[in-house]
Automatic annotation (TrEMBL):
Annotated stretches, region: Disordered: 1-20
InterPro entries documented for this protein: HS1-bd
Keyword RNA-binding: no
Lineage: Eukaryota, Fungi, Dikarya, Ascomycota, Pezizomycotina
Gene3D superfamilies: 1.20.5.430
Protein name stated in the entry: Heat shock factor binding protein 1
UniProt record similarity statement: Belongs to the HSBP1 family.
UniProt keyword Coiled coil, yes or no: yes
An MF annotation (GO) of this entry: transcription corepressor activity
Keywords: Coiled coil
Length: 74
Protein backbone atom coordinates (compact mmCIF):
# COMPACT_ATOMS: atom_id res chain seq x y z
CA UNK A 1 0.00 0.00 0.00
CA UNK A 2 1.08 3.54 -0.58
CA UNK A 3 1.73 6.15 2.07
CA UNK A 4 0.15 8.80 -0.17
CA UNK A 5 -3.42 9.87 0.64
CA UNK A 6 -6.07 8.78 -1.85
CA UNK A 7 -7.34 11.67 -3.96
CA UNK A 8 -9.88 11.78 -6.77
CA UNK A 9 -7.13 12.72 -9.23
CA UNK A 10 -3.51 11.66 -9.26
CA UNK A 11 -1.52 14.73 -8.26
CA UNK A 12 1.65 13.35 -9.84
CA UNK A 13 0.07 13.46 -13.34
CA UNK A 14 0.29 16.45 -15.65
CA UNK A 15 -2.33 19.13 -15.16
CA UNK A 16 -2.77 19.64 -18.88
CA UNK A 17 -3.88 16.01 -19.35
CA UNK A 18 -7.29 16.81 -17.84
CA UNK A 19 -8.47 18.96 -20.76
CA UNK A 20 -7.28 16.27 -23.18
CA UNK A 21 -9.27 13.62 -21.33
CA UNK A 22 -12.31 15.90 -21.16
CA UNK A 23 -12.05 16.59 -24.89
CA UNK A 24 -11.73 12.87 -25.64
CA UNK A 25 -14.77 12.09 -23.48
CA UNK A 26 -16.77 14.88 -25.16
CA UNK A 27 -15.81 13.56 -28.59
CA UNK A 28 -16.77 10.02 -27.59
CA UNK A 29 -20.13 11.18 -26.23
CA UNK A 30 -20.82 13.16 -29.40
CA UNK A 31 -19.92 10.17 -31.56
CA UNK A 32 -22.14 7.86 -29.52
CA UNK A 33 -24.98 10.36 -29.63
CA UNK A 34 -24.70 10.66 -33.41
CA UNK A 35 -24.61 6.88 -33.84
CA UNK A 36 -27.58 6.44 -31.51
CA UNK A 37 -29.60 9.04 -33.43
CA UNK A 38 -28.71 7.36 -36.72
CA UNK A 39 -29.67 3.90 -35.49
CA UNK A 40 -32.86 5.24 -33.95
CA UNK A 41 -33.79 6.87 -37.26
CA UNK A 42 -33.04 3.66 -39.18
CA UNK A 43 -35.16 1.63 -36.77
CA UNK A 44 -38.08 4.03 -37.09
CA UNK A 45 -37.85 3.86 -40.90
CA UNK A 46 -37.74 0.05 -40.86
CA UNK A 47 -40.70 -0.12 -38.47
CA UNK A 48 -42.65 2.25 -40.72
CA UNK A 49 -41.83 0.07 -43.74
CA UNK A 50 -42.90 -3.07 -41.86
CA UNK A 51 -46.14 -1.38 -40.80
CA UNK A 52 -46.94 -0.50 -44.41
CA UNK A 53 -46.20 -4.06 -45.54
CA UNK A 54 -48.46 -5.46 -42.81
CA UNK A 55 -51.23 -3.06 -43.83
CA UNK A 56 -50.92 -4.24 -47.46
CA UNK A 57 -51.04 -7.89 -46.36
CA UNK A 58 -54.13 -7.23 -44.24
CA UNK A 59 -55.81 -5.50 -47.16
CA UNK A 60 -54.97 -8.40 -49.49
CA UNK A 61 -56.25 -10.94 -46.95
CA UNK A 62 -59.48 -8.99 -46.52
CA UNK A 63 -59.89 -8.76 -50.29
CA UNK A 64 -59.21 -12.49 -50.75
CA UNK A 65 -61.63 -13.35 -47.95
CA UNK A 66 -64.32 -11.20 -49.56
CA UNK A 67 -63.74 -12.85 -52.95
CA UNK A 68 -63.82 -16.34 -51.45
CA UNK A 69 -66.98 -15.54 -49.52
CA UNK A 70 -68.77 -14.47 -52.70
CA UNK A 71 -67.94 -17.59 -54.67
CA UNK A 72 -69.65 -20.94 -54.18
CA UNK A 73 -67.57 -23.87 -53.08
CA UNK A 74 -68.24 -27.38 -54.46
Amino acid sequence: MSDKPDNDLDQDGPEDARPDVAAAVDELLNTLSTKFASISSEMAAKMDEMSKRIDRLEAELTENKAQDGGSTKP
